[in-house]
Amino acid sequence: MSKEAMQAGKGQPVLGLFGPQVAGGAPALGRAGGVPRVQRPDRQQVVMCWAALDEQVPEDHPVRQVWQYVQATDCTALYQQIRAVEGGAGRPPIDPQILLGLWLYATVDGVGSARELERLCDLHLAYRWLCGGVGVNHHSLSDFRTQQVEFLDQLLTTSVAGLMYEGLVTLNRVAQDGVRVRASAGAASFRRAATLAECHAQAQAQVQQLRAELEADPGAASARQRAARERATRERSQRVQQAVAVAQQLAAARPAPAPAPAPAPAPAPEDPDRDPGPGGEGTKAPKRPPEPRASTTDPDARVMKMPDGGFRPAFNVQYATATGSQIITGVSVGNCGSDQGQLGPMVEQHQQRYGRRPAEVLVDGSYAKKADIEQVSAPALGVTVYAPVQKPKKAGQDRYARRPDDRDAVAQWRKRMGTEQAQQIYKERAATAECVNAQARNRGLRQFLVRGLQKVRAVALWFALAHNLVRAVTLRAQLARVAA
To answer: Which residues of 210-249 are buried (b: 16+ CB within 10 A; e: fewer)?
Structure first.
């Protein structure tokens, strides 16, 4: 027994970090004047727990609701991808339902890293319950998260259609809003075309050098290390090559510079005080727009203006939400920082998913482009748009009055937004679309950990499915209380 323990047993104080204490950190004297009696931890005690894993998770735990959703999901498309069959060779893979349940619950829980999810599957009871004794690794988790875009998109359609069949969701009124999410690319990774060409040449040289080293000494590294090095070098070369193509496309789409004005005549000798301007000319040359740049780590990312006013590489995630239920009904991801031009494609997406378009659409002023309003308000589509009308630049002009260049659809929109009823309807947008975006932010939709437009779209679909799962549980509970 240590000296400190012997002193504690006799009630003698021991010098601790914050003054005289007995062993274990308790104060030297209690209220009665003696040494306090407390229950101390004994971490060397052997404990036997005879309980099944299912008995350790409460019946009302949210993870059970996620598993019920997974069991009700048609995963035929996922099982058809498995090549290991009964009576054949091959190691059986992880059940796709386990991976689906893990990522749904992780998204609800705000976990977006495959390595963190792997760690939780060993330490957290809820994740261990989902695994049910099946071991998972971060490679399998990461691949499943980003390679099942078509399945996730179809799952969003079928799940919302099921809620519409239950009467929990209607497409009478839909609110749309975008959220700019930081990309997994640094600002320093953006290069101009000339620099990208040099980077591509260096990457190709690295590929050739690596191949020459492997051919000269095949036993210098293990097969796994050689494969990893070769894969990393090849993928970098492909990303740089894609960045070169993106920079060329952006340069081709850039508007041609305006012709330079004719030089001003030379000043007369009797006018020595005239300022010739820069370069000795009387006029200033037009300023050329900056040369477009592309990222070597994520060529699909674009520099966008973020909500805080800064400019960073990001993606524009668009969510459409039913106002009455806050169920996400449409998802799109792009690399254009503007919301203009996003209204029409989202309306058509609803037609493709559910066979009908929303009757009314609520958007903010950034979507209020005349061409978009005319497109969705056409008789063939028949969508009513509720969006704020921009304040006129001319003082005293009525913002809701028809302009000379307005068509009928735009004029009707202006007149409609001038009514009290339309303004009350528009207030539902903030309580729906912005609320959904805020919940996605709270669940971790602040920066993507994946690269590429396709993988980013997969992550956005995971957030939509997780949000709808939670909302569906709430809506069914509300319906049950009303029925009771």
So the answer is: beeeeeeeeeeeeeeebeeeeeebeebbebbbbbbebbee
Does residue 461 share a domain with residue 336? yes
In tens, the pLDDT along 334-362 reads: 999 899 999 999 999 999 999 999 999 99
User: Is 282 among the domain residues?
Assistant: no
pTM to 2 decimal places: 0.79
Judgement on whether residues 120 and 162 belong to the same structural domain of the protein: no
Contacts of 296 (CB under 8 A, 6+ apart): 189, 190, 191, 196, 199, 236, 239, 240, 243
Question: In the chain, how many domains are there?
Answer: 4
175 φ, ψ (degrees, to nearest 5): -110, 135
Domain C-terminal end among 88, 121, 147: 147
Residue 56 has pLDDT above 60, yes or no: yes
DSSP-derived secondary structure for 355-386: SS--SEEE--GGG--HHHHHHHTSTTT-PEEE
Q: Which amino acid is at 151?
A: F
The CA distances from residue 77 to 27, 73, 431, 462, in Å, are: 64, 11, 36, 17
Instruction: Write the secondary structure of 146-189 as one string of H (helix), E (strand) and C (coil).
Output: HHCHHHHHHHHHHHHHHHHHHCCCCCCEEEEEEEEEECCCCHHH
Report strand pairing: 190-191 vs 294-295: antiparallel
pLDDT digits (tens, 9 = 90+) for 358-376: 999 999 999 988 999 999 9
- Beta pairing, strands 328-334 & 311-322: antiparallel
Domain that holds residue 304: 151-185+299-483
Task: Judge whether 10 lies within some domain.
Answer: yes
Task: Mention every residue, 6+ apart, whose C-beta is less than 8 A from residue 82.
Answer: 93, 96
* Statement: residue 198 has pLDDT above 60: yes
User: Is the same domain home to 128 and 11?
Assistant: no
Residue 328 and residue 447 in one domain: yes
- Quick check: is 167 in a domain? yes
Q: Are residues 1 and 70 in the same domain?
A: no
Provide the terminal-to-terminal Cα distance of the chain, rounded to the nearest Å.
65
Question: Are the CB atoms for 328 and 464 separated by under 8 Å?
Answer: yes
**Shared domain check, 172 and 139:** no
Instruction: Evaluate if residue 406 carries a pLDDT over 70.
Output: yes
In-domain check, residue 268: no
Contact residues for 89 (Cβ-Cβ < 8 A; gap 6+):
none
Same domain, 318 and 203: no
The verdict on 416 and 462 lying in the same domain is yes
Element (H, E) at 71: helix 62-71
